[in-house]
């Protein structure tokens, strides 16, 4: 963090807290404990002689004085941060913290590149946060997001990360030994399906394409999960049909441990994208990471198990 060890840190803390209106989230971005952040804000308020934030047990909001104070310091801090980044860009290697938000599957594909990047750029640090919900990466203090193309806001810059995807309906050979494999999506109503609950709490309807038209099936099933890993484990154990990304089960299908069905009804669609907001002047750490991903994109096109180690100089 550019301001962490400078006299401007408390001012940056004010901006961060005003952005999140939440001590826990702001403290996480600043790499502090919530109590340490509260102490820093209180110390600044004591020196200024005014209360910058209204605090209750449930909420945090700017006071009128805080709003006026923020309006003056935010542009100034932005200019100072830009000047520090300009100087940082002249270093032989970039330094600083890069915060990335990704889904679990995206993070698994990104992890080898993150490790290789850190080896090549020893002065950089990366905070990779894995969560199912789709967030506003700017509002929550992230530099980069990694999600499916369809989930990315149109005002973001996105670059392909990994191959096209398709959904795969799979079950164990033992399951199909006792049940007739489905020949079409509507046959799923007669099967035990491992249902998927989305981060929002909504039950996911399995999606297919039939004669060029998209359909969704509210499949039956006694088991509901919200983890792809657990769904695959349940399918391997013979508990029914799972609906997962094809890359996550490709090796299991090749080995004969799972059987894929309904492939004709699950066409490919655009896969993961690495995205970030447009900047007039991109920070050195962000720029080098994006360039690193572009130059090493081939590794994201393979299942994670196919490349246990990446040469960071490639």
Give a verbal description of the structure.
38% of the residues lie in helices and 20% in strands. The chain contains ten helices and 14 strands. The protein has a five-stranded mixed beta sheet, covered by helices on one side. A hairpin with a 4-residue loop joins strand 1 (53-55) and strand 2 (60-62). The longest helix is centred in the first third of the chain and has 26 residues, at 64-89. It is elongated and about 75 Å long. The two termini are 28 Å apart.
* Strand residues, percent: 15-25%
How much helix is in the residues?
25-40%
N→C terminal distance: 28 Å
Unreliable residue runs: 1-6, 301-314
Radius of gyration equals 24 Å
Task: Give the SSE layout.
Layout: H1 9-20, H2 23-30, H3 34-48, E1 53-55, E2 60-62, H4 64-89, E3 96-102, H5 104-120, E4 124-130, E5 144-148, E6 157-160, E7 167-171, H6 173-178, E8 194-196, E9 206-210, E10 213-217, E11 223-225, H7 228-236, E12 242-245, H8 246-254, E13 259-261, E14 272-276, H9 284-295, H10 297-300
Parallel strand pairs: 3-4, 3-5, 8-11
Antiparallel strand pairs: 1-2, 5-14, 6-14, 7-12, 7-13, 9-10
Give a brief rundown of this model.
With 314 residues, the protein is an alpha/beta fold. The protein has 10 helices and 14 strands. The chain is elongated, with a radius of gyration of 24 Å.
